[in-house]
Amino acid sequence: MRSHIEAAADHLRNDSEEMRQCSPEQLLYHEYLQAGAPHGPALYAVKGEHWNGVSPKFLEFVNAFQFDRATMGYAESGYGIQRHRNFLRGLIVGEHDLTGREPAAGLDIDVGCLAMTTRMAMYDMAKVAMRQAKQNFPGTTPVALVPTPAWDYRGIFKDVGFEVVFLPLTPKNGWLPDLEAWDAIVRDTVADGTRHVAMAVTNPQHNPTGMQWPVTVTQYLLELTARQGGFLLLDDAYYCVHDPRVARVNHLKAMLDAFDRNDGDNELVASGMFDRWVATRPFGKQFSCNTMGVAAITTSPKMLRHLSRESWINRYHTNTHNAELMCAWLATPEAAAWTIETGLFYTRQKELVRTRLKARMGWPDTGLCVGPSTSYMLIEIPKVYQRAEGGIDCFRDDLFFATGTLVSASLFNQTAPVPFVRLHLGSHPDVIEEFLRRWQAAGLHYDMPKPFGGKAALARPLVF
């Protein structure tokens, strides 16, 4: 609890009034401090912080690790030195059941070792896709198809110039993609010929629902982008952040199997699609060390070259020491053991919150989304907040003013197709218990008769 409180204060405090405007959480925290932190130290469960959920063995490994001089300079390639790339290729081949794959000529994969978070690779990919869209489809608007709720893909693609079209996920279909509904949206998007699908995103172990998508989802998006001359991002961020008792759905293998049909002599390959996909696999989520930003980037050799070109344009290449450390850690038996333990840990955390919200605060089963993957769960906002414009963010703000606890609102819930907030479960169980204790003490209930009352709650400290 103490380490969470101290780290939350470090990350949320910002003494610059101008800089605070970039972060809703820092704005809220500043007001909370100004009011004297009436409900106790602020607790944070928004963007995937792991301030006290980091693997103890990994932390010991980091503190004992010794670097040499070669890891301290700029790197020549933004997508990793060869030794790290070779190691991660072996890991991807092994963990995605690709050991026996014998690709036809031109269909072998390459694997980059990125040490700057997958968001940077996605920016590189977006710029490659935008350049090709302008060249191959002049006069039309490039569209990026993005699931919602989801991680902030919108922030990347919209910034690069794509029109973002959202593909909704709802409880009506068990929080899984409804491909008929998605296809109707796509057909409507391209119907008049002024727009084309230049990018699509598949997120098989889905953030934030935790649900696993069937491989038919990636197959649909792969065939769609092939026909449209677009690109496909396979975001495998939570491939191993998963309940180990549930089989993982392996979309990377399914996609490569599609390319390998008939020994590579098929329409998908003929479309040039093999050079228009990227799979991202970060390790910060697997070991609760997001600040390291190390990831495997799997794609074709040609596409990796394009990504590397964009990387040179945008930045010098640093953080090779992080890649050195992560590759060494991934080779240990402790890393494999922690992967299993952390999957069970998240499963227990989700069950704790689900049970408490149902038993003590009136939540129905339909108001909670708990899948076997990711470090998140979804919680429907109380019915009284669903009637108001901007109710999701309003609930997030009011809940913080009433309890000092922060959750994620519209950042992940673009276009708000469903009235849910996202709770991150990476903190120690004592921290999650304190969240629930404060919520119950403040009167949080699915059928609460009226809203908390905004900033006025800062003048009424919680009584336990």
From TrEMBL:
Per UniProt, which keywords does this protein have?
Aminotransferase, Transferase
- Please name the InterPro entries in this protein's record: Aminotransferase_I/II_large, PyrdxlP-dep_Trfase, PyrdxlP-dep_Trfase_major
* Alphabetical list of Pfam families matching this protein: Aminotran_1_2 (PF00155)
The record, for CDD domains, names: AAT_like
Which superkingdom does the taxonomy of this entry point to? Bacteria
Question: What region holds the Aminotransferase class I/classII large domain?
Answer: 144-363
Citing just one GO molecular function, the answer is: pyridoxal phosphate binding
Query: Would you tell me the protein name for this molecule?
Result: Aminotransferase
Where does this protein come from, organism-wise? Mycobacterium angelicum
